[in-house]
């Protein structure tokens, strides 16, 4: 069937075979990234603009490296310093950039749905690098690749997503992806952070960590996203760590070969014990970062192929 998307706005728009196509190509880019010479030419001649309206370390660096390794001209817009501060709307900024003929636009924005809206106004491929608490598709794809490589498959696994699910676009995208690939997902956390409506996605909800982690293959921890909280969601960080922080004792409920994941940035001693995070026998947190570059290379490569094909199909104006 092939990969037929024009943009990468959310996992909700992808078919299972499209998810597999991205991951298969990403596996090849993992090999390339481990060589001394890391160059390929999938994006040669194309322009990639990264617009991050929210802070980012991993995601922005990884999109930048991905574009450069594939030969694109990559520009990072410093959105804090841009005209947005002078009152220009998101759409005006996008239209201005669009007039410079970018081919790939990578956008992170604090408002859910903002990236989708923007994609309707420009004529290039748009990649969502996180919109509010809505979706973060490349994060879910890199998590999927990490799981598939560690477990040898991406179906019939028991995955626990733990902590601040309510404010997390990472949780939402992962929940959708893991469901599409026929895994069982549990959401673990206090009711203030794991609202009951998440059961709609087909997940089981657990308030108790030991029960929630029982016999799972994958433990995915989330950061407490205080920047999105508008009140007291937890009693105190100490109490939270005691009940929900991942330590060796809580992890002992999972399968002996269960892997530990975290999208970063991590708060050691809040949602995860530093020793577990650093335990190379359990934690795949560094692999997640490595897979991030490869998955973004694969996603941009596939979108660029569709972009070129759609342009070739258009009549040329003379
Ligand atoms: C996540 C995000 O920005 O949604 N980080 C990331 O992209 N690696 C998760 C978070 O901020 O906690």
Describe the structure.
- With 318 residues, the protein is α/β, with parallel strands linked by helices.
- It contains eleven helices and nine strands.
- It has helices at residues 16-33, 58-69, 90-98, 114-119, 137-151, 169-180, 209-213, 237-244, 248-251, 274-278, 285-313, and strands spanning 47-52, 73-77, 104-109, 125-131, 158-162, 184-188, 204-206, 218-221, 259-261.
- It has a five-stranded parallel beta sheet with strand order 7-6-5-8-9. Strands 2-1-3-4 form a four-stranded parallel beta sheet.
- Helix 2 (58-69) links the parallel strand 1 (47-52) and strand 2 (73-77).
- Helix 1 (16-33) packs across helix 11 (285-313).
- It is globular.
- The mean pLDDT is 94.
- It binds N-carbamoyl-L-aspartate.
- Residues 58-59, 130, 136, 139, 169-170, 223, 225, 263-264 line the site of N-carbamoyl-L-aspartate.
Approximately what portion of the residues adopt beta-strand conformation?
Answer: 5-15%
Which ranges are low-confidence, i.e. pLDDT below 50, for 5 or more consecutive residues? Answer: none
SSE-based structural type: alpha/beta
Mean pLDDT: 94
What is the oligomer described by this structure? single chain
Helix share, percent:
25-40%
Number of strands: 9
């Amino acid at each position: 069937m092939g990969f037929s998307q024009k943009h990468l706005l959310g996992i909700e728009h992808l078919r299972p075979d499209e998810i597999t196509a991205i991951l298969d190509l990403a596996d090849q880019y993992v090999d390339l990234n481990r060589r001394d010479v890391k160059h390929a030419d999938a994006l040669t001649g194309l322009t990639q603009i990264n617009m991050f309206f929210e802070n980012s370390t991993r995601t922005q660096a990884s999109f930048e490296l991905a574009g450069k390794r594939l030969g694109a001209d990559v520009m990072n817009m410093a959105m804090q310093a841009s005209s947005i501060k002078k009152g220009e709307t998101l759409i005006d900024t996008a239209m201005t950039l669009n007039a410079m003929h970018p081919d790939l636009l990578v956008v992170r924005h604090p408002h859910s749905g903002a990236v989708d809206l923007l994609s309707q106004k420009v004529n290039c491929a748009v990649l969502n690098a996180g919109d509010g608490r809505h979706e973060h598709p490349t994060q879910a794809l890199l998590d999927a690749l990490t799981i598939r490589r560690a477990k040898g498959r991406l179906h019939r696994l028991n995955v626990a997503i733990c902590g601040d699910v309510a404010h997390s676009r990472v949780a939402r995208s992962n929940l959708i992806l893991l469901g599409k690939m026929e895994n069982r997902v549990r959401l673990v956390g206090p009711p203030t952070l794991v609202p009951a409506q998440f059961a709609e996605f087909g997940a089981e909800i657990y308030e108790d960590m030991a029960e929630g982690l029982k016999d799972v293959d994958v433990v995915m921890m989330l950061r407490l996203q205080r920047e999105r909280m508008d009140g007291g969601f937890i009693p105190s960080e100490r109490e939270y760590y005691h009940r929900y922080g991942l330590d060796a004792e809580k992890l002992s409920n999972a399968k002996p070969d269960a892997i530990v994941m975290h999208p970063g940035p991590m708060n050691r001693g809040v949602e995860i014990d530093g020793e577990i995070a650093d335990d190379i026998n359990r934690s795949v947190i560094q692999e997640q970062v490595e897979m991030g570059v490869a998955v973004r290379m694969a996603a941009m490569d596939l979108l660029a192929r569709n972009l070129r094909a759609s342009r070739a199909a258009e009549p040329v104006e003379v």
